[in-house]
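STRUCTURE:
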């Protein structure tokens, strides 16, 4: 039971979703932003248009204006992809809490239960960003680096800095081994030779 629960936490999935996790194809309605003047329009997509609340905008009923119509593109994931997969560590934090002490003291709601995001009730993972780029909703000239690429970049930087620091330490140790002991050995030889000379004169 504990192993299954941890598996669901790390994969950011539920018991029902896990039954068809490897073959499930998700259908998402992704908002299509307005095309700026002078830019190329996105390729033709299967879309749906309806009045939806705009994040951080006043209520249309209070302003007396009709609600704004928004267009959403219908996108499909590949079989087995999870649009809400943020990576093992971020999946764990989204369920257990942002701080380590919340993992042992469950006195707050999980961060995934806040539902305070303007784009979705739950945070989307790199799969959705790739789907948007392939559909032309996000400009391919300025793609956003997904979480996996960021982790790999951080690992490479840490490896480079570790190698550089280890090289400096090895150089210092070589100098310590190759310089000081030899000088100390020469001093001992000189002292022994001077002692021999003193013994001969006696």
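SEQUENCE:
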């Amino acid at each position: 039971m504990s192993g299954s629960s941890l598996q669901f936490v790390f994969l950011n999935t539920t018991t029902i979703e896990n039954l068809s996790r490897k073959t499930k194809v998700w259908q998402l309605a992704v908002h299509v932003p307005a095309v700026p003047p002078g830019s190329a329009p996105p390729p033709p997509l299967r879309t749906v248009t309806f009045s939806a609340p705009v994040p951080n905008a006043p209520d249309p009923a209070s302003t007396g204006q009709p609600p704004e119509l928004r267009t959403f593109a219908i996108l499909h994931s590949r079989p087995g992809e999870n649009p809400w997969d943020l990576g093992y560590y971020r999946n764990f934090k989204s369920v257990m809490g942002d701080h380590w002490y919340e993992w042992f003291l469950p006195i707050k709601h999980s961060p995934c239960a806040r539902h305070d995001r303007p784009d979705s009730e739950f945070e989307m993972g790199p799969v959705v960003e790739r789907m948007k780029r392939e559909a032309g909703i996000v400009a391919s000239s300025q793609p956003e680096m997904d979480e996996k690429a960021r982790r790999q970049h951080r690992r490479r930087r840490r490896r480079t800095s570790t190698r550089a620091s280890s090289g400096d330490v090895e150089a210092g140790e070589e100098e310590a081994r190759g310089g000081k002991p030899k000088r100390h050995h020469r001093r001992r030889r000189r002292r022994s030779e001077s002692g021999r000379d003193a013994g001969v004169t006696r």
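REMARK: The CA atoms of residues 158 and 164 lie 10 Å apart.
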